[in-house]
Amino acid sequence: MPHDHHDHLSPSGHPYRQDNDAPLTYFQRMEIAVRELLIEKGHLTQAEIATQIDRMDARSPANGAAVVARAWTDPDFKARLMENAGDATRDMGFDIGPLHLVAVENTADTHNMIVCTLCSCYPRNLLGLPPDWYKTRAYRSRAVREPRAVLREFGLDLPETTRIRVHDSTADMRYIVLPARPVDTDGMDEAALAKLVTRDSMIGTGLPLAPENT
Amino acid sequence: MTDTPEHRWHDMGGQSAGPIPMEGHDFALWEKRVDALMVLCGAKGLFTVDGLRRALEDMGEDAFEKYSYYDRWIAATNQNLIEAGVYSLEELGQRMEDIAKRGATYGEAQA
Amino acid sequence: MTPSGTKVRVKAMTPPGHIRAPFYLRGKTGEIERVLGPFRNPEQLAYGLPASQKILYRVRFTMAELWGDAAENPADTLDAEIYDHWLEEA
Question: Which residue numbers delimit the Nitrile hydratase beta subunit domain (chain C) (predicted)?
């Protein structure tokens, strides 16, 4: 095979999955056929598909991190975010389409985490596509019944005095956790703060990085 | 695991399950295309996301365990497009046969 | 429309089909956390039917209510979005 990626890691640290060079599968044939028929019948164009892929590739946890850092540094923005996170995020300039977004705030005694038990709803128009674990049977099943055990698997052991609030995205809303601002970050500007905000801290399965770890 | 008439398989909240598998993968081009087709067809009103979910649920638990996420999403997209009359099963079947003859890999099978 | 703070129970019915009220919440009592407003009914959208508007609520349940003695911490909570036609007065 000319391009055998299988033993290599991508820049994001994930292994490449079989792609263009692996044997053609039934569902890949279906994708090609569906795409060609949609184009031939005038429903879509090649350009629209390419643009949509670019649009999705441009969405990443960095967008959410910028929103969180703004909320940490601008009390008026934070108030708007808590009131209507979709509008606050659109006002910041992010292309999130018609997303109905709700922000839930972590405090000294409250920790929020997000799941979708019925499928795998995720604020993809802000954060990009969800991590694979978010879509697994294990996460979808257990997050609502034993969130503390699940969080321990992510390395987060919260005291019994912390109130855990789990949010099941069952319908039209999507959720983002506004993590608590880490201590010892008083002198940091918005851009530096955004670097502390991890994807998992916005799903609630992690915390922001401490400043010395960046 | 559960799959009874009263409690369908996809409704997983509260079931017992093993450790969370933490490994991830980067999305392949064909997966990104499935994602784009699904979003664009929804935006053009050819189906709704609820129609996609209904098709995914109706595929059953076996499909969830056996096929990848985007395998199932292209199948659900196709199911909804067939139901909407966008193309016929005959057209789809013939095109999939033609594609198989183009080459042995996804890259070679493009028109 | 039912105001925030009202105690409600998720109906315990089990019709077949595409439903967004999770099984583990059916028959359970919670409190309306906020009113989200009208949204098109997914139970009609899923079948390509013209869809009516249903009021969507965010309902908060305690883990004690959901899991009884098996709850990790009875005072932890679970919020979910439930449409009006799946809720009854508690």
Answer: 5-88
